[in-house]
Amino acid sequence: MQITKVEVVPVELKLRLPYRTAYRPDVEIDQIAVVFIRLETQQGLTAWGCAAFDENLTGETLDAVLRSCRACADVVQDLSPLNTEYALGELSRCTAHTPSALCAFDIALYDLLGLAAGLPLHRLLGGYRDRIQTSATIRLAPVQETVKLAQERARQGFRILKVKGGVDPDQDVERIRAIRRALPGFTLRLDAEQGYTARQALAVARALKDDLEMLEQPLSATDLDGMQQITARSQVPILADESVTAPQTAMEVATRRAANGLSIKLATCGGFHPARQIDIVARLHHMATMVSCVNEPALLTAAGLAFALSSANVRYGDLDGYLDLVDDPTVAGFCLEEGVLVATDVPGLGCTVAL
After folding, report:
1. Counting beta carbons within 10 angstroms of the beta carbon of residue 303, is it exposed (0 to 12), middle (13 to 18) or buried (19 or more)?
2. Once rounded to an integer, what is the mean pLDDT over residues 340-346?
3. How many CB atoms lie within 10 A of CB 131?
4. What tens digit of pLDDT does each residue of 123-132 get?
5. Residue 25's domain is classified under what CATH number?
6. Residue 31's domain spans which residues?
7. What's the rounded Cα separation, in Å, for the pair 34 and 66?
8. What's the average model confidence in pLDDT over 60-88?
9. Number of C-beta neighbours around residue 344 at 10 A
10. What are the CA-CA distances from residue 95 to residues 39, 52, 193 (Å)?
């Protein structure tokens, strides 16, 4: 099989609900920039990939991602897409500081594998299940607004809510308790986005020990000593997210027991290939994994879903990054049914892109 044409298409997408983060709580984000990749082969197959990134997480910029994608486009036509391990090794030379660009070509090459084999990727990668429940994210907001947003997600069918926090620990406790009163029986997660001190993290975990399924990334991504200490003492399971950017960092978190579980984002680690390595690290250390996302088109969510469905070690889904995008050009093959993402048996990623 030979790749005969590569297209690199940057796209700006607006968000239906702007949001703020603990990294920059004074800045409202109302749109994202992404880069779509289209591969065509001599045999008439068309595969898609996508680079979505968060500058706060990886330091990537649109210009840098575009440069990397265009460099990969120049190289990939000389590579066999069926020799995936070798091809991705060569492409990684062009994407040393832009994991989202590597992810775009990684999932496009795997999309081609699925198309060539006539298999959906979740089956090609392992086929453990065909559906997984996902959380819906509640943005950083005052208490009353938080409850209204949670109730809106409940009306959409979600039963797992991930609440963004990290700016004011006391208010985070109040927000979680307010949601619990409004929506008893729901599963609640709190993402502190590296915003707490160790003392604050333990206080929040103590206050919410009966309310939270997990506390995600309470300390700085690089503070593994602190993460190790609160994991040992917390009354709520600790999930490492921003601390896990590659198989190497996953290994460090796991060997130091700096969390109870690992979060995997295809966009920040570089695609299926490194994601599978991170999942193996977690499995060997008896740690569950959560497959998560950035704000991303449904094409990238389809890739995250395929990975989540392929592994028995993936216990949690957090794949809602496409929900609030306006005019996403992805024509998705998966379905969302009452908060559960369900894959189809369409070969490859099961998506097309209307560009």
Report:
1. buried
2. 96
3. 17
4. 999 999 999 9
5. 3.30.390.10
6. 3-118
7. 9
8. 95
9. 14
10. 18, 14, 26
